[in-house]
Design brief:
Layout (H helix, E strand, L loop, with lengths): L1 E7 L3 H12 L4 E7 L2 H11 L3 E5 L1 E2 L2 E2 H11 L4 E6 L3 H10 L4 E4 L3 H13 L13
Parallel strand pairs: 1-2, 1-3, 3-6, 6-7
Antiparallel strand pairs: 4-5
Helix pairs in contact: 2-3
């Protein structure tokens, strides 16, 4: 797997956990990071990542709005939302905003890598007719 991944997460500690977990998988990844939606948009346009892992709550912009803006310019980019919130509440919002998948932050270690692999291989991560986690 040779992928560019952008992690957009405002909490430094959690962003570091995500990066460390990705690096520990011995995959061929280029990892970029941003602490806000605004910075994430700039990096996304410059680096053109294959996948963006994005917190749903970001300072000055939420993850859904940021994802929508990024997808307008990079429709091929897959976006996976990282959330602490009840994902059922957001299912229709994710579907209507072309979010590829979502992962509960508490399930990061169990579910993130399988979802990334599924999304990269053309799968949808599960939101279309059921769950995306």
């Amino acid at each position: 797997m040779n992928l560019k991944i952008l992690v957009i997460e405002d909490h430094d500690d959690f962003r570091e956990i995500v990066k460390t977990h990705l690096k520990s998988q011995n995959l061929n990844l280029q990892i970029f990071e941003a602490s806000s939606g605004e910075v994430g948009e700039v990096i996304a346009l410059r680096e053109r990542p294959d996948i963006i892992l994005m917190d749903i709550r970001l300072p000055n912009a939420n993850g859904i709005d940021t994802a929508t803006r990024i997808k307008k310019n990079l429709p091929e980019c897959k976006i996976i939302i990282l959330t602490m919130f009840e994902t059922e509440v957001f299912r229709n919002i994710f579907k209507s905003n072309d979010i590829s998948a979502y992962v509960g932050k508490s399930e990061l270690y169990e579910k993130l890598i399988p979802i990334i692999k599924r999304v990269v291989s053309g799968g949808n991560g599960g939101i279309s007719k059921g769950e995306r986690n």
